[in-house]
From TrEMBL:
GO terms for cellular component: cytoplasm. Monomer. Gene3D superfamilies: Ribonuclease H-like superfamily/Ribonuclease H (3.30.420.10). It is an enzyme of class 3 (hydrolase). Belongs to the RNase H family. This is Ribonuclease H. Binds 1 Mg(2+) ion per subunit. May bind a second metal ion at a regulatory site, or after substrate binding. Mg(2+) 2 binds at D9, D128. Endonuclease that specifically degrades the RNA of RNA-DNA hybrids.
Amino acid sequence: MKKVTLFSDGSALGNPGPGGFGAILRYGDKEKEIVGSEEHTTNNRMELRGVIEGLKALKQPCDVEIVSDSSYVVKGINEWLDNWVKRNFKKVKNPDLWQEYIEVSKPHKINAHWVRGHDGHIENERCDKLARDAAEAVKNL
């Protein structure tokens, strides 16, 4: 199973407001950037959307290390998701995205790792810029 690192970040201007996400997939010395935006969304939705779109870009089952500055995403994946499923996502924000995450993560072995945002982590800073630029672009449409 290939080992892949997925760096991801999300941004929303206004929260809710125009939003964007940026992700970097790294396998060995190869990288792929993934960027997207939505006209009206929240920061948490964009944080999770970056992870989902990164996983969707994988062509085969992989051992994926997700690196994010979102404790919502990291704790959701590592700690909360099993109980949310048992409760059928009652009183959970963004159940549509969490259910989509479950589907796209099924073929993969996932481990999520939290990093402090805006703290000089090179890939996190790149993803943050991709996400902010995407949010600004959709804001200016």
